[in-house]
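agent> Task received from the user: take the single chain below, predict its 3D structure, and emit C-alpha cells. No templates, no multimer pairing.
agent> Plan: (1) validate residues, (2) run structure prediction, (3) serialize to C-alpha cells, (4) report one or two observations.
agent> Step 1 OK, no nonstandard residues flagged.
tool_call: predict_structure(input=
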Amino acid sequence: MNIELIGNFVGLTLAHTGFIGSGQDGELMVPYLILQSGAKREVQNFEAATQQEAIELAHKAIEDQQSSVDAWAYAQEGVVELEDGTKQDVYLIKAWSNDLAEPIQLYQMFQSSPFKLIGNIQMLNFEQAGFDMEQAETFMNALNSGILSHKSANENWQSWFE
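)
tool_result: status=success, residues=162
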C-alpha cells in the first residue's frame, strides 16, 4: 500500500477544501469529488436544491466510478458532536485507493465566519482502512506535503488556524 500517495491526496483535498471554505463567507460548501486515474485528476462538483441531495449525488458518482479509477477523494461539510454536547462544523473528507480495505475518513473542524480551521485533522478509521499505527507519522508527513502542494491554500494555511 502506498501510504504516501493516499496521505498526499488527503492533504491536497484538505487544502483545497480550506481554500474553498475561506471564500464561502458562511455559505455551505458544495460537496466535491476528485477522481484520479494515473496522473490525471478530475474534479466534480455536486450542486443540488439541498445539501442532502448534493451528498447523495456525490455518493452515487463514487459508486458508479470507483471501479474505473485508481483513487478518489471526497469532501463535504458536516457536523460532529463534541464531548461537552455542543455541535461543531467540520469538513468531512473520505479518500480511497485500490489498495485500501475501505475509504479512510477524516474531519477537520472549522469556523465559517470569520473563517478559521480549528485544531488538528481527526482520523476516524485509520486502522480499519488498512493502515497500522506505525504508519501514522508517514501518513501525516505525506498529508502535510499534500497541503504544501496546493499553492493557493499553502500561502494562507497558517493564517487559517486560531
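agent> Step 4: summary for the user.
The beta strands are 32-37, 40-45, 71-81, 87-97, 104-111, 116-123.
agent> Done.
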